[in-house]
Amino acid sequence: YTTLFRSSTDASVIIDNRTVAALVQGNTIIVVPQAAGLLVKIGKNTYDGSVVRLVPQGQDSKITLVNLSNVPDWNKELNDNIYRDTMEWRIVGGKLVTINELPVEHYLLGLAEVSNTAHPEKQKTMAIIARSYAQYYLTKAQKFPGLPYNLDDDPNSSQKYLGFGYEMRSPNFAAAVGETTNQVVTYQGEVVKTPYFNKSDGRTRSAQEVWGWTNTP
Q1: Cα 174 from chain centroid?
Q2: What's the whole-number mean pLDDT along residues 81-106?
Q3: Alpha-carbon span 137 to 143, nearest angstrom
Q4: What was the pLDDT predicted at 35?
Q5: In the chain, at which end, N or C, are there fewer CB atoms within 10 A of the end residue's CB?
């Protein structure tokens, strides 16, 4: 799978910890998976490597994955393919993987775990719980041992992360994230993994029933 991307600000292209090029705002580059790693095309120049990073130089930067189709069923005119901060590409399990590297507070802005129309107190609660979940897997345990990322964007295994497009569609939740900055759930002074749900069929289930947890108070 080949990926094309461009940055909203000037950015550095770093391959295997070596800066190889400066990408001008709006320019597009291509990453192509190869048998031995990745091939990077920037204009007429090509580079080889194992880990490719695009590190924006400006503030409030966004990176567009040009040929990514992440269109929701309920609105075919949307495409969630814009992300904040640094992007990284590498081969994992024989496939090209895109990793969005960003601070937790920026990550939460693109988290589609609650609707923009939900009650403000519910939104703030969800922001705190989702932040706690993320911080737990940053500081206390590994969600995906041996893999080069902390969380993925699949709500069935992690949290539903859509990036900058969702942030723009959900200003109320973005405000809730800002109002609860750095707030997490703790137990005996330690951040905890917080099971939660946005809506149910009327019956609250225990973490043991849903995930098989047996060590919860």
Answers
A1: 15
A2: 94
A3: 6
A4: 83
A5: C
Strands 186-187 and 95-101: unpaired
The reported pLDDT for the residue numbered 159 is 94
Taking CA atoms, 101 is separated from 74, 173, 189, 200, in Å, by 28, 21, 27, 32
Q: Which two tokens stand for residue 38?
A: 């990745």
Mean pLDDT of the chain: 91
Cα–Cα separations (whole angstroms), residue 21 to 14, 171, 187? 7, 35, 47
Both tokens of 88, joined, read 């990284």
Torsion of CA 197, 200, 204, 205, to 10 degrees: -70
Q: Render pLDDT for 16-26 as a digit per residue (tens, 0 to 9).
A: 999 998 888 88
Distance between CA atoms of residues 13 and 17, nearest Å: 10
Give the list of residues 6+ apart from residue 194 with CB closer than 8 angstroms, or none. Answer: 129, 132, 133, 136, 185
Q: Which 8-state DSSP code applies to residue 41? A: E
Q: Which two tokens stand for residue 3?
A: 């990926």
Contact between 99 and 149 under an 8 Å Cβ cutoff? The reply is: yes
The three-state (H, E, C) secondary structure of 68-133, written as one string: CCCCCCCCCCCCCCEEECEEEEEEECCEEEEEEECCHHHHHHCECCCCCCCCHHHHHHHHHHHHHH
Whole-number Å distance between alpha carbons of 164 and 10: 18
Q: Any idea which of 5-14, 37-46, 102-111 has the lowest mean pLDDT? A: 5-14
The order of strands in the sheet holding 11-15 is: 18-23, 11-15, 51-56, 86-92, 95-101
